[in-house]
Amino acid sequence: MASRNTVVVFAALAAVAAWAADVVVAPTVADVPPSAFDAGDGPLELKYDNNTRSFFFCDLTGRGRWVGNDFDLSAISDYRAIMKIKVYSWPDWPNGKWDGFRLGIYGYAGGQPTSLLWGPKYYKPTRTGYGWCTCSVGWTLPPENKIFVAGVEQYYDYPDLDPMTLDSNLTFAGHSWLYESGSWSKLPGVIGYRNLMLRVVVNNVPVDITPTSVGRVKALYY
User: Fold this and answer.
1) What is the pLDDT of residues 109-124, one digit of tens each?
2) CA–CA separation, 57 vs 209, rounded Å?
3) What's the CATH number where 126 sits?
4) Lowest-pLDDT choice from 8-22, 154-168, 190-204
5) By residue range, what is the domain housing residue 120?
6) pTM for the predicted model, two decimal places
């Protein structure tokens, strides 16, 4: 269940009455078709979501509250160049415009996220309508970090912020996190939906070298 300092917009209007005290409801919007993978020189797009949203959600106080996904590179240890972070968001709710958010990459140890390794970096989307916002990173993860967490902070206060998104899979993949009040915990989600729609694109070539083409983008973790 979402906490009372989180505002949620339903993708459908079912069960609104039961949650009226906790949520702000926007008009229903139609699903977008699955996005095409980025064209590139053999990167891997790491993901856990099913590419279909359930809820957009906003924190009442954005600064200092992060959500993110952990990704394990142990099986693909050469892919240490983090090229992009992709965030599913929407400019029309809650205030009809893009406000921007901050991105960061955290370490991971002892079964949970640790300190900030890269960022925070501010990013303001320019796309029209809801969907995947592709944010450039261009940073190589240190070799000692086998697992990392890509995170996003809404930064501004409601309603002057951009929503984050949960997918429609009720089975929790176990990789989505929430940072608040100085500590990390697994993302509580909204009535059972807990998989954050946030992805990363990695490459096995250092970011300062132009790779030769090895074909279309592949996808992992789903």
Assistant:
1) 999 999 999 999 999 9
2) 38
3) 2.60.120
4) 8-22
5) 37-220
6) 0.80
